[in-house]
Amino acid sequence: MAEQPATFPFVIGSNCKPGIQRDGTIRAGDGYVDGRWMRFQNGRPRKMGGYRQLTASLTGIQRGIHQTIQNGFTYVHVGAQATLERLTIQNNSGVISGITARTPGGFASSTNYVWQFDSMFDGGGTDTLLFAHAGTNLTDLADATDYSVYSGDIYGTGALTAIASSAVSGGILVAEPYLFGFGNDGFIYWSVPNDPTDLTGAGSGDARITGEKIVKGARLKAGSGNAPAALFWSLDSVMRATFIGGSAIFDFDTIATTSSLMSSRTVVEYDGLFFWAANNRFMMYNGVVREVPNRRNTNFFFDNILPQNQGKCFGFANPRWGEIWWCFPYGNATECDHAVILNVRDNEWYDTELPALMRSAGDFNHVYTYPLMTDATASAGGATSLWQHETGVDEVMLTGQSNAIPSLYETGVVSGLDFTPPHLRSIGVGTIEPDFVQTGALTMEVVGRANARAGEEVGEPQTFDALAATIPEQVVYEKTQRRLLGFRVTSNVAGGDYQAGESVAHLHVADERVLGALAEEPEEGA
Fold it and tell me: Quick check: pTM over 0.90?
């Protein structure tokens, strides 16, 4: 093997595959080791989009969102502990209407509600109906208390009303032309076809399809003569319903007996495939139920959710970027302050911290192409906000004020063992040639440690603007060394944005020091 020259170029990040490695040791992974508000596109890091505040006047912490589109407007319904509210968004301008209360009369408050919504045209009437169900499933998915299913004109402003004999504990699903309700002990019912508020007439029915509570349903593509079809999740299994007609109407079969569900809100459809967070792994259905491999952040996710907070987790698709987000409370957080993200296009995983106000619910509509999320931090008066994500690059408040969104990524470590010929000495960093599509200033820091048990050492941040004003500003001048070497790039200015290219660091073999500072210095006298 040829000897390494005294100084040699190294493409920053060339030792990393897309994805953020949270599980394992700093040397064991092959991905980036840290990131915040960034994603990977074409294998390269880039900043995520910004978000703007649509309203700050929602009542309480929301646990469900539904969207539908008509005549250039998106109709948004949100459900909280004591309210069901509606607002509209003008699709081209983004201007929103005032908030309309649609809470059913006599609706009893509970901090443990989780809402499920669906919609369907009522063949027995003249309206497209919104269906809403609030079950006390936030802290206990197995809660057995039955609650009514409510309905009302999806484009109307009046209070929803209860459907007779509709009470269930699990939730609802529309698989046209039927409305399904489900709950305890595997119980499921379906309405008269095309008449979703009639649960007792000809063509309606019910069955018990498993022994455990059913907690979630989803429409499923089916062949001619077998539609409609649906998937149902119980506490411990996944079932399939298929239309067969006759007196039975539906046939039910169990397709997985070892699956669970963390929350009814963690099931996400993506192009006809279904993904969900179970209690201890990620799962999918593509004709069969199987586990979704995740070498990046399985432990990071499942080891850091308290059991009482699992019901607060929620997921949604973000197809513009090929992503599925699962938002969750990390560690002792009481609301969702982190998200793990599956990039379906690239089959990679990464994660991010969520905004400081945290998030309580999220949804995506394929016509209004911005994900909507509600925050989880109520004002002194109990109000919360609705946010439109993936718009611009900043946090934009109702007042028009724009705040910078911090975004960063850190490469995995490289050492002398990764070069030819391998060696155990430190690596020195000289000149760096940045390569970014960027707006606003970025900073780059050399990070690393003397060995795997030493504390991380962070070099002086070197700042560079989008355009070089002088010839020396075309490069970054660095003078530091590490045995385990990495690079951290940060954007934290209003209007800041970036897409990483192939930045080059000029490296050289440095001294033989193998010890460094401790990660945590022992107390005096210890």
Answer: yes
Over the stretch 213-233, which tens digit does the pLDDT of each residue have?
999 999 998 877 789 999 999
Sign of CA dihedral 51, 52, 54, 56: positive
| Alpha-carbon gap, residue 126 to 268, rounded angstroms | 31
- What is the rounded distance in angstroms from the CA atom of residue 100 to the CA atom of residue 156? 10
How confident is the model over 487-517, as pLDDT tens digits?
999 999 999 999 999 999 999 998 877 777 7
Q: Which residues of 279-316 are buried (b: 16+ CB within 10 A; e: fewer)?
A: bebbbbbeeebeebebebbbebbbebbeeebbbbbbbb
Q: Angle at the Cα of 398 (from 393 to 404), degrees rounded to 5?
A: 30
Phi, psi of 16 (to 5 degrees): -120, 140
Six-digit token string for 172: 């609802």
Calpha distance 489→354 (Å, rounded)? 19
124 within 8 A of 198, measured Cβ to Cβ:
yes
E strands present in 122-247:
128-136, 149-153, 161-162, 171-175, 178-182, 187-190, 205-208, 214-220, 229-234, 238-245
Burial class (CB in 10 A: 0-12, 13-18, 19+), 440: middle
